[in-house]
């Protein structure tokens, strides 16, 4: 059921309460852009405690806040039906992340979680990383456009050396810099589970590419790497491609919106054109 952008608000959610508690067929519910706040979140929490059919819940672009997230997290701790939860842009902050992390340590069914644009910082990153050390069901985690930075990356690296379930990590626009790339490189040397990594818009230069090159021969799991909107030049890209000979797994790399100008670089084109079945996005 798609109810996106319908000005439902907290009061409207109360009207849905009885219907959704009794409904035994609805599996997908999109309530994004509906001005849902703390009261609406509490009503949804009560619904999730009892509903046994909803597997996908989209709450993007509301203003649930810390108190509202606390209520949803309580129901998430016990709900064994929900598979996908989208909470992008909901003013969760580090404090709200604490409640989500606590729920992840108790929940055994959620596989996809979106937390983009929630002002999550280093403290929130630590909460989530600790949860990933215990959680064995989450497959896809979206953390783009937060403020996790290099210090937060370190917590995730430690967690993903333990976690063997997470396959997709989206970390775009988190200002991780060169130190963050170095930390992810060390992770990719050892982690053989992660198949998709999004590091777009993180200030990565050719020095960052050099770090990633060093793990190509050791990692046999990563299939998709997103480096869009960074500062990589044609020289960095060419060196990356030249070192793909020992890696037969990576099949998609996004290098669009970088500083790669191929005009006049015939050697680059010859290197790129001879790469085995690699989907490169410029």
UniProtKB/TrEMBL annotation:
<keyword id="KW-0343">GTPase activation</keyword>
<dbReference type="GO" id="GO:0048471">
    <property type="term" value="C:perinuclear region of cytoplasm"/>
</dbReference>
<dbReference type="Pfam" id="PF13516">
    <property type="entry name" value="LRR_6"/>
</dbReference>
<dbReference type="InterPro" id="IPR032675">
    <property type="entry name" value="LRR_dom_sf"/>
</dbReference>
<dbReference type="InterPro" id="IPR027038">
    <property type="entry name" value="RanGap"/>
</dbReference>
<dbReference type="GO" id="GO:0005634">
    <property type="term" value="C:nucleus"/>
</dbReference>
<dbReference type="InterPro" id="IPR001611">
    <property type="entry name" value="Leu-rich_rpt"/>
</dbReference>
<keyword id="KW-0677">Repeat</keyword>
<keyword id="KW-0433">Leucine-rich repeat</keyword>
<protein>
    <recommendedName>
        <fullName>Kinase domain protein</fullName>
    </recommendedName>
</protein>
<dbReference type="GO" id="GO:0005096">
    <property type="term" value="F:GTPase activator activity"/>
</dbReference>
<dbReference type="GO" id="GO:0005829">
    <property type="term" value="C:cytosol"/>
</dbReference>
<dbReference type="GO" id="GO:0006913">
    <property type="term" value="P:nucleocytoplasmic transport"/>
</dbReference>
<dbReference type="GO" id="GO:0031267">
    <property type="term" value="F:small GTPase binding"/>
</dbReference>
């Amino acid at each position: 059921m798609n109810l996106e952008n319908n000005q439902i608000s907290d009061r409207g959610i109360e009207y849905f309460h009885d219907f959704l508690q009794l409904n035994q067929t609805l599996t997908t519910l999109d309530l994004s852009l509906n001005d849902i706040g703390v009261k609406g979140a509490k009503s949804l929490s009560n619904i999730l405690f009892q509903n046994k059919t909803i597997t996908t819940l989209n709450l993007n672009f509301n203003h649930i806040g810390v108190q509202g997230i606390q209520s949803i997290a309580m129901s998430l701790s016990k709900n064994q039906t929900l598979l996908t939860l989208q909470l992008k842009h909901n003013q969760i902050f580090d404090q709200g992340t604490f409640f989500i992390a606590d729920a992840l340590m108790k929940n055994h069914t959620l596989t996809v979680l979106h937390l983009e644009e929630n002002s999550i910082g280093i403290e929130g990153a630590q909460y989530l990383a600790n949860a990933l050390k215990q959680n064995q069901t989450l497959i896809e985690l979206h953390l783009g456009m937060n403020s996790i930075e290099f210090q937060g990356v370190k917590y995730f690296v430690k967690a993903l050396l333990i976690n063997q379930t997470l396959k997709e990590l989206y970390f775009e626009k988190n200002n991780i810099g060169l130190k963050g790339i170095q930390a992810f490189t060390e992770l990719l040397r050892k982690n053989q589970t992660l198949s998709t990594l999004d590091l777009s818009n993180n200030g990565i230069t050719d020095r960052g590419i050099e770090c990633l090159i060093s793990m190509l021969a050791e990692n046999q799991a990563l299939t998709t790497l997103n480096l869009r909107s960074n500062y990589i030049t044609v020289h960095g890209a060419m060196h990356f491609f030249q070192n793909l000979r020992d890696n037969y797994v990576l099949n998609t790399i996004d290098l669009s919106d970088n500083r790669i100008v191929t005009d006049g670089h015939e050697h680059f084109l010859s290197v790129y054109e001879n790469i085995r079945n690699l989907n490169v996005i410029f």
